[in-house]
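hiii, so i know i said id send this last week but things got crazy w the move. better late than never?? heres the sequnce for the chain we talked about at the cafe, plus the structure i predicted for it. fair warning i was half asleep when i ran it
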Amino acid sequence: MIKRISVAFALALVFLCSTAPTQAQEIKGFYQKNCASCHGRNGEKTALNKARKLETLDEAQVIQALKTRRDGKVKGAGNMVKKRLSDENIQQLAEYVQTLSDRQH
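okay and structure toks below
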């Protein structure tokens, strides 16, 4: 009986792991859907010719920029999206941005 339960649990775990998007995939999807149109797929654009290119910012600068916009301290076109971000989301997004292009930092 225990062996059957163990096998069923293992199969369920494999199924769930293979179908659930990873956290990295979710962050990438969020960036592509909500950020890339203005900032570029690789962070190479100056959003609305106002923001610095994300590819030039380090992780701490990205975190600072996202938090100040989320908290309404800086106004911008993407602030409505940023208001939905938790501190954890911001950290994940900042880490993802660092992977977008070859960096010379």
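btw The chain has a mean pLDDT of 84. thought thatd interest u
miss u guys!!
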